Amino acid sequence: MFESLFLTHSPLQAVIVISLICAAGLIFGKFRVWGVSLGVTFVFFTGIVAGHFGVSIDENMLLFAESFGLVLFVYSLGVQVGPGFMSSFRSEGLKLNALGMGVVLIGSTMTIAISKGLKLPLPDMMGVLCGATTNTPALGATQQTLAQMGEPTAAPAMSCAVTYPLGVVGVIIAILVMRKFWVKECDMAAPHEEHINNTFIATLRVQNPGVFGRDMHSVAEFTKVPFVISRLWRDGEVILPSNDTVLQEGDRVMVVSSRKDMDVMEMMIGKREEIDWNSESVDWNHLDSQLVSRQIIITRPEINGKRLGALRLRNSYGINISRIYRSGVVLLATPDLRLQMGDCVVVVGGERAVMKVEKVLGNAQKELNEPNLTSIYIGIALGLLLGSLPLTLPGASLPVKLGMAGGPVVVGILIGCYGPRLRLITYATRSANLMLRGFGLSLYLACLGLSAGRGFFSTAISATGAMWVGLGFLITLLPILLMGVVAMRWWKVDFSSVCGMLCGSMANPMALNYANENVDGDHASVAYATVYPLSMFARVVLAQVLLMIFM
């Protein structure tokens, strides 16, 4: 019985072994050492231990589970980061992405230089690079490319496994070194600076003679900044303003705009009142007796991808939409904003009108609990098709393919970013997305560790293993320290954002967790989310391009 369940190769045995490795890895991954936990990454090392003690499964089953886990992980990752991918190239995001790409290119250049200078096999050094940057999708791309070239794929997994632990710790060490020796008071972010682009609510008293007698449409043309006026108080009565509503001296208006644009609104309309409307404790339904404020969730599929202005809700029902919550971010309700399934819309108006709008938008939360599996399967299939297309690059010995690591992440990003415009429902709860990502990554890491475990410990204590560890630590540390100093001294980026940028460029959520616990504000998390998508994509593609050109 024991032998048939755990030792004899069969589909049942493969499922049991992989499940036990994943379970044990996830349990032990929760333990913290000096404030750092490896999380799901510990599944990799659990697989290595199991492989070292002779545990194995059928090769075909191993290949299938490893490939499927990788595809599921990278596609789910792409869908998650897709909505913010294009916006990350604007203003401050462009600077952070340029710095992140500097980290990626320096590490890749060091890898090639070390391989050529010390006459080390490039596949081994690519594994060192993947371990030093804690980037398992890049390792998957490396192995796929080597298989396409007819080369062995075991060496990169081994060198990656040996260098991975210091890859995690190295980023934390670099942050500590920078904070100890280079960070000054001027490098810390100013208080509340991270909220400058956030949606902000204020009431203004109409005092500027230039807007007396002008309608809302004219004021919007003069102001040239996006804003929404959700309420207007006049002579003790509350009015729901429209584009034709004329402002009069002494009116009070509730304005929704970004914090940085509120000064412009104050100069255009009048003095801001000292009332905090941005607190979570504000009871909007008891603000005035004539109007109600209700949060309505978009659950009707036909609304997905439509522009807010195209619904004509204000003209049809006499309501105002002041702001929209999407994935924890508050968006300004401008007419050209495209709505998505799962958006939470704040509607202000009369009780009956709001109820009618609720029927139009859906507000059936049960609909959101049903996962849209169709778009997931279609996206994975399209990603694999894209990954199989050969791309000819100058200097490459073979056509480059995005493969199972690159194709699905590209399609995931595109679907996450543009899916709603094509009326494709891409909504999934955060927990559902994390579930898919965690399941895929743990499956991939368990199989990867199982295949690398046979010779891991003998390699780790050998001269070759010690050399890999040293070189990997160098590839982790030098690019981070160099670009960290450049970011703070030349580009004047605050230290918190630098930490997030470095963690994102190294695909290191464990180091981000350390940064969040030791640096005030949410700059680090914002910078991490800004840099991570492009850096991840670049490492997956570079892993293939470098092998094609330099082998």
Written overview of the protein:
- The strands form two sheets. A four-stranded antiparallel beta sheet has the order 1-4-2-3.
- β2 and β3 (237-239) form a beta hairpin.
- The protein has helices at residues 2-6, 11-28, 42-52, 59-81, 92-117, 122-132, 136-148, 154-181, 216-223, 259-269, 313-317, 351-361, 365-369, 373-387, 403-418, 430-452, 456-460, 463-489, 495-505, 509-518, 523-550, and strands at residues 199-205, 228-234, 237-239, 252-258, 292-297, 320-326, 329-332, 344-349.
- By secondary structure, the protein is an alpha+beta fold.
- The radius of gyration is 27 Å and the shape is elongated.
- The protein starts with a helix and ends with a helix.
- The chain folds into two domains: 2-190 and 373-550; 300-363, Alpha-Beta Plaits.
- The longest helix has 28 residues, at 154-181.
Structural class, judged by helices and strands?
A: alpha+beta
Largest beta-sheet characterization: 4 strands, antiparallel
Q: What is the tally of beta strands?
A: 8
Shape: elongated
Kindly state the percentage of residues in helix. 55-70%
The tally of domains stands at 2
Helix-strand string: HHHHHHHHEHEEEHEHEEEHHHHHHHHHH
* Alpha carbon gyration radius: 27 Å
What oligomeric state best describes the polypeptide chains here?
A: single chain
Note poorly predicted spans.
190-196
Instruction: Estimate the strand proportion.
Output: 5-15%
